[in-house]
Target: Transposase
Amino acid sequence: MRRWLHRFNQSGLEGLEDLGGQGRKRRITEEQRSPIISLVKTVPPGRLRWEPVGELWAFDEAGPPEWTLDSLAAAARAEGIEVGRSQVRRILLAEGVRWRRTRSWTRSKDPDFVPKGHRSSASTPAHPTTRR
Model:
């Protein structure tokens, strides 16, 4: 006999309500999840910055220049939160937070940068016209 049918026969409609406490308990509380999520918005300690005098510097030269799952897990452990790489990934995915920023090397922040123009010749095809 199905368990839900037995509960219905014993308790009626109240027996079909969700029984709390099923499944594995969370190992990380909400108070521990929040700092992990907020870490992504901070600047990584190894990222280079420009000083006003024109020199580059970093808070921690040995630190990560970009946030990765491993570096986020290590930073959380340094704050006393025992968390693994896969847990950090699940937490960030559940919150819809991006921990990486994709940036192409072909883009420049220089306002005087001029991107490459069109092809050198209009007769140069963009793709081969026949299969090899």
Summary: Residues 30-97 form one domain. The radius of gyration is 27 Å.
